[in-house]
Design brief:
Blueprint (H helix, E strand, L loop, with lengths): L8 E2 L4 H7 L2 E4 L1 H8 L3 H5 L21 E11 L2 E4 L27 H4 L2 H18 L4 E11 L19 E10 L1 E3 L2 E5 L5 E4 L7 E5 L3 E5 L2 E3 L5 E10 L7
Parallel strand pairs: 1-2
Antiparallel strand pairs: 2-10, 3-4, 3-5, 5-13, 6-10, 6-13, 7-12, 8-9, 8-11
C-alpha cells in the first residue's frame, strides 16, 4: 500500500517567517490564489499547455521520460518583461549531471505566457523574494516539466538532491495522474534535518530558500497504465541569469 504524507500548508502571511526559520514553505491552491490575487480557474486553464511539451534531448542518464519548455523573464517594480530566448545553464557545482552545458529548450507557448494566471504569479513571487532578500529586479527562469512513466519509471530530479544556484525556487504541482512515488524531500543544506511529503493538489506550491536547503523528488512509477507528473518550476535570482 502506498503511504502518502501530506505537507503542512501555510498561509501567505506566514511565508516570510517560515522561509527564514525552515528554509521552505508549502501553500495550498487557495493560498496561491490569495498570494497572487488570481482565480483558481485561471491557473487551471494553464494545464492544457503541458500536453504540448517537446522531449528533453539533454538527459545524460539515457532516459526518455522528461518533456519540457523554458522561458526567461525579468520582474522589476511589479512589471514582468520577457527576456530574449536563451539557453538554460547551470554550473556543475549545482548540477553534477547536466551542469556546464548550454541546454536550448523550446520556449513556452505565447498563450501560456500571456495568460492572466501566469502573469499574476510571477510578480507575486518576486514580492516574496524581495521580502526575503531585499527589493531588487529578479531574473526568473520558468520551466514546464512533464515526467512520464512510459519507460516504467520517471525521474523528476535525475541529478539527485541539489540546490539550483538561485535565491528562491517555486515548484507548482500542475497535475499528477496514474502514478506512485514523486515524494518531495527537503533537507538543511548545512545540517541533519529533513522533511518529506507528497504534493497531490493541483496548483499547490513548494517554496524554497535555495541558499538554505537542498531538495529532490523521488522517482515515479505507473499504477495501472502510463502516468505522469506535471510541474511548473520558477527560479528567482538576483543580479542576472546564470551563465551571463
Amino acid at each position: 500500500m502506498q503511504t502518502i504524507l501530506s505537507p503542512d500548508f501555510a498561509s501567505p502571511r506566514e511565508l516570510p517567517q517560515l522561509l527564514r526559520s525552515d528554509g521552505y514553505a508549502v501553500l495550498a491552491p487557495a493560498g496561491v490564489c490569495e498570494l497572487a490575487g488570481c482565480r483558481l480557474p485561471d491557473l487551471q486553464a494553464l494545464a492544457a499547455s503541458w500536453d504540448d511539451l517537446p522531449p528533453d534531448a539533454y538527459l545524460r542518464d539515457g532516459g526518455h521520460y522528461r518533456r519540457r519548455r523554458h522561458s526567461c523573464f525579468v520582474v522589476a517594480g511589479g512589471q514582468v518583461t520577457q527576456a530574449p530566448h536563451r539557453a538554460h545553464w547551470q554550473p556543475v557545482e549545482y548540477n553534477a549531471l547536466h551542469g556546464g552545458m548550454q541546454r536550448w529548450f523550446e520556449p513556452m507557448a505565447a498563450a501560456c505566457v500571456q495568460a492572466p494566471g501566469f502573469q499574476q504569479i510571477l510578480p507575486a513571487l518576486a514580492g516574496v523574494a524581495s521580502t526575503l532578500k531585499g527589493e531588487r529586479p529578479w531574473y526568473v527562469e520558468a520551466h514546464q516539466f512533464r515526467i512520464d512513466t512510459e519507460g516504467g519509471i520517471g525521474r523528476p530530479t535525475p541529478e539527485g538532491a541539489h540546490r539550483d544556484g538561485v535565491d528562491l525556487v517555486a515548484v507548482f504541482l500542475v497535475s499528477r495522474a496514474g502514478i506512485k512515488g514523486g515524494e518531495t524531500r527537503v533537507f538543511e543544506a548545512g545540517g541533519p534535518l529533513g522533511r518529506r511529503f507528497t504534493l497531490t493538489q493541483p496548483w499547490s506550491l513548494l517554496l524554497l530558500d535555495d541558499e538554505r536547503v537542498i531538495h529532490e523528488t523521488t522517482p515515479i512509477q505507473p499504477l495501472d497504465a502510463q502516468g505522469h507528473r506535471d510541474t511548473l518550476v520558477l527560479t528567482y535570482r538576483a543580479g542576472g541569469f546564470q551563465g551571463d
